[in-house]
């Protein structure tokens, strides 16, 4: 199937850094390719402020129209969120379909959602985005006769569409509420069982799913595409000391994520706020990795997860051309495809935890097998000795300061 030809358009604010502008443009290109489009031309304009009606000036729109005609492109994508009026006016001027960055991201998400919840969330975000963009917005909808406050016979198709969409939005919100409640129950159970949770976060395409799959031997979707993972997956993994933890793979972050999507994926991202520990995966080979790192840290802050212990893993060291200087600490520079490097990550998680946790020594009689198992599962045991004369085990290790088992340690 031939790919759809696309013209990309971006406005550069004079105060925006060139690197940030270029990286955002490259991201738009990757997004377009992820959505099966082929970029045939990129048009940029330096412009102080956005034109309220047409976003760019008349001359630029003419240039876009000619470029689209010359390249036989069927679609123009703007690297910014356009208002409903701007979208309509630009489409009228350039004569081909026009969408903005937000709609592109929503389309990709729609193609990627696997679970019922993921699909509902994307549909909700799409409808919320579409509602103000139905044609004819802003004009008073005709209501012929019928007196004040009644709908009258002259209801337009537009109003019917709107009511239909609004009903669907309300319906999805109700269904999502149920899913969120179930998820909260599930989280509560995990908390009661004192399961230790590690969330992998990071910019889209940093290698999160690859790490997740190798460490948990699972089959989550991994591909060199933006937003390969949409639905959070949780699996058990074992740290080198034998300590068991739950690992969650989360949706990839991106700069300028559409607001409707942040709201829709709140519950997906909330997995992160429930975590006890965060592994922040960064694509070290990306030219703009520092900006990407900051984007993720800001989003974590916004979600209220900024205070959690965090290990930054700089991935893709095999693609680095020069010496790499980490931007955050504690950190490791690795290639998650390398089994030795994956072990280093797991050891480093334990190292960071030891600094956060309480050190303990405890003696467990051999007859208390269940208690011994609990210490193995819920704490990091660094040494274990069996004393025949006392018939029991002397354990030395580290435990979460608020874990119920801690009360049993004298």
Q: Can you tell me the CATH superfamily of the largest domain? A: P-loop containing nucleotide triphosphate hydrolases
Radius of gyration: 26 Å
| The CATH top-level class label of the largest domain | Alpha Beta
Under the CATH scheme, which architecture of the largest domain would be assigned? 3-Layer(aba) Sandwich
**What is the H/E order?**
EHEHEHEHHHEHEEHHEHEEHEHEE
Helix amount: 40-55%
Strand order of the largest sheet: 6-7-5-8-9-10
- Straight-line N-to-C gap: 69 Å
Percent strand: 15-25%
CATH fold description of the largest domain? Rossmann fold
Describe this structure in words.
- 42% of the residues lie in helices and 21% in strands.
- It is of the alpha/beta class.
- It has four domains: 4-109, GTPase HflX, N-terminal domain (Rossmann fold, 3-Layer(aba) Sandwich), CATH 3.40.50.11060; 114-138 and 157-192; 195-355, Rossmann fold, CATH 3.40.50.300; 357-408.
- Helix 4 (101-112) packs antiparallel against helix 5 (116-130) and helix 5 (116-130) runs antiparallel to helix 6 (157-192).
- It is elongated, with a radius of gyration of 26 Å.
- The termini are far apart.
- Mean pLDDT is 82; it is low at 136-155.
